[in-house]
């Protein structure tokens, strides 16, 4: 019976970690959840600890990504029980990484506080890499509004996650010392003071040290949020209504906005099939002095690839054409949503493997920024905004803004779109660039280079959101160096710990 209570605590403490993420934003819950995980691993028998870590992960992931069932059930046509079962299967897979963390802690009898974040970062790296990766719900994201957010421009979200785990290990050590080992209290307290100094210095060192605003290059930008219901989006009978909605939003802002941006796959037809519509937009925009960035589904005939892309329309110097070089095509596709692995085997199994537009091919990993109104936009389509390394690799010295377009209608009125927005905010803070986020049903937003939301549109409303946004110039340390400083820090901690262990072993062997 005692073990059942431990397992219940494990599941609930993992689920409680979701409260640290948006839309709840109780950032302190991240520390409590991870402290509970460490306590479960260190204070219970090995087999119990491993299962508890797995159940902690089940609590975090089954609740944290529960929004996936909306697309599987409502738009994939799977029965609701099947949709929840598939979410649980995904959660079970993701929970293998906390389980691996627990195994490593017990296998190497980790006692050094700095080794907890080293091992956690290793398992989180694997979670974001294996099978193309699913780096959702990294605890560093929860600190975007916390006092230690200033770590992100230096070490990125992985470094911020490292800090959260380190602090959680220190909290566990303090509680453990007070309860069982008073002699170790001073060591734990020293770690807490060190963490407070690191966090304080990072918070003090704001992004303004690294980047500066260029008000002389500010643009008046409008985000067209069409609010097309997902069950209507790909309905051929609704195509002309969709075109009319976006045409109306565009026409009301031509001439008053420098740039009008439409969300991911805003026009639900092959771009190749509605060329007159695009040429008409080119002419109208050029006459009014505005330009457009439009999310489209494009068939590249030369390479025979179906691409999820965004393209610039209205530039009088480089007029729109179907084969336009001023285009970005999504590189990191979502399995089952945008392409189907083992397609010949899985597609015949049912509608859940045949979602609309699930036959895309990938664009190049590195692509030049889009050029619009004389400004450079490094782009990320939907899921790609959570891939900080890919976006960083696509930044250039000329990049003025980060642009992300999305269609979160797939996930309805759930916590998914809010988590997605939180990740977009982190990219702004890490890279020191304003982020422009255009979505179909929300949450469309303008985000400054500190990751703060300047203004956002309400969800599930047809609207146009306009803001005058200035770019930044310069680089944060993370933009310049990526995760290299974090990996060097991990290596240093590991070598120091190994050296200390060898010295201790030598002293014991020699009777010292």
UniProtKB/TrEMBL annotation:
| A GO molecular-function annotation | N-acyltransferase activity
Its main localization is membrane
Transmembrane annotation, as ranges:
26-43, 50-70, 82-105, 117-139, 151-178, 185-204
Which terms does the UniProt entry file under GO BP?
lipoprotein biosynthetic process
The CN hydrolase domain sits at 224-471
Q: Where in the cell is it found?
A: Cell membrane
Q: How does it sit in the membrane?
A: Multi-pass membrane protein
Please explain the role this protein plays, according to its UniProt record: Catalyzes the phospholipid dependent N-acylation of the N-terminal cysteine of apolipoprotein, the last step in lipoprotein maturation.
Q: What is this protein called?
A: Apolipoprotein N-acyltransferase
Q: Which organism is it from?
A: Mesocricetibacter intestinalis
The gene for this chain is lnt
């Amino acid at each position: 019976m005692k073990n059942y209570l431990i397992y219940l605590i494990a599941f609930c403490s993992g689920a409680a970690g979701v409260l640290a993420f948006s839309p709840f934003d109780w950032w302190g819950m991240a520390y409590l959840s991870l402290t509970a995980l460490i306590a479960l691993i260190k204070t219970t028998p090995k087999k119990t600890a491993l299962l508890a870590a797995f159940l902690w992960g089940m609590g975090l992931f089954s609740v944290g990504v529960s929004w996936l069932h909306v697309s599987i059930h409502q738009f994939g046509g799977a029965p609701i029980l099947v949709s929840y079962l598939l979410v649980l299967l995904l959660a079970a897979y993701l929970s293998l990484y906390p389980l691996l963390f627990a195994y490593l802690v017990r296998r190497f009898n980790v006692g050094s506080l700095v080794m907890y974040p080293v091992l956690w970062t290793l398992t989180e790296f694997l979670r974001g890499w294996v099978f193309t990766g699913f780096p959702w719900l990294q605890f560093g994201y929860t600190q975007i509004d916390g006092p230690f957010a200033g770590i992100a421009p230096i070490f990125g979200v992985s470094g911020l996650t490292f800090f959260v785990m380190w602090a959680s290990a220190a909290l566990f050590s303090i509680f453990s010392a007070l309860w069982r080992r008073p002699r170790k209290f001073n060591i734990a307290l020293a770690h807490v003071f060190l963490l407070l100094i690191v966090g304080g210095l990072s918070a003090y060192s704001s992004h303004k040290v690294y980047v500066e605003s260029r008000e002389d290059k500010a643009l008046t930008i409008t985000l067209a949020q069409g609010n097309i219901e997902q069950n209507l989006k790909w309905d051929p009978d609704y195509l002309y209504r969709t075109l009319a909605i976006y045409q109306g939003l565009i026409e009301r802002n031509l001439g008053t906005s420098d740039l009008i941006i439409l969300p991911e796959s805003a026009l639900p037809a092959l771009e190749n099939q509605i060329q007159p519509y695009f040429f008409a937009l080119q002419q109208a925009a050029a006459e009014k002095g505005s330009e457009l960035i439009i999310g489209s589904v494009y068939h590249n005939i030369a390479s025979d690839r179906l691409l999820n892309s965004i393209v610039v329309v209205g530039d009088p110097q480089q007029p729109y054409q179907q084969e336009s070089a001023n285009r970005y095509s999504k590189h990191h596709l979502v399995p089952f949503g945008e392409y189907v692995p083992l397609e010949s085997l899985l597609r015949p199994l049912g509608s859940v493997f045949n979602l609309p537009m699930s036959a895309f091919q990938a664009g190049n990993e590195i692509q030049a920024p889009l050029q619009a109104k004389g400004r450079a936009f490094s782009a990320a389509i939907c899921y790609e905004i959570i891939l900080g390394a890919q976006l960083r690799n696509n930044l250039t010295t000329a990049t003025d803004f980060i642009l992300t377009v999305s269609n979160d209608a797939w996930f309805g009125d759930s916590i998914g779109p809010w988590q997605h927005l939180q990740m977009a905010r982190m990219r702004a803070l890490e890279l020191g660039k304003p982020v422009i986020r255009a979505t179909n049903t929300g949450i469309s937003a303008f985000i400054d280079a500190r990751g703060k939301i300047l203004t956002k549109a309400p969800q599930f409303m047809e609207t146009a959101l306009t803001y005058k946004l200035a770019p930044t110039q310069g680089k944060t340390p993370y933009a310049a160096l990526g995760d290299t400083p974090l990996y060097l820090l991990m290596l240093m901690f590991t070598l120091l710990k190994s050296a200390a262990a060898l010295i201790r072993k030598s002293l014991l062997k020699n009777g010292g």
